[in-house]
Amino acid sequence: MARLFPRAVVRGIQLGVGLGVFNGSWGGGLSTASAPVLALPHLGDLSTVLVLPQLPLTPGNSVFGAADTARMYYEERAGRVTHRNLLLSVGLVSATAGLIGGMPLCHWSEGVTAYYRLGARTGGTNLMIRGVLLLLAVFL
Prior knowledge:
This protein is mainly alpha-helical. It contains 6 helices and no strands. α3 crosses α4 (83-99) and α3 (54-74) runs parallel beside α5. It is globular and about 40 Å long.
């Protein structure tokens, strides 16, 4: 594992697993898991405390910053990473997640940098990382 990931990442994973075991929360939620239910958010859920600060952050960091960062690292290979495509994907994923009770998601310029610094040079890296996370979620 140390060859695939930097030592700090390995230590972070070890710390997270250790804290989960220590707190007794390791696997405790499996017995109460249920399928997502389709539900529209209530007007009270869209309070100004949660929505207003997100308005400048989402376009700035997850759209404009991510597109510019992708172009900086990947140059011409980042041709499909446009502001329009990022806005569409953030909007669709967040709307879908909200309908099933999930949290809004976004692309972050920091995430692009993290992938690049870990050695990601193709889209296969996303599949590999998500596959590992999916296996951890299912089996742990």
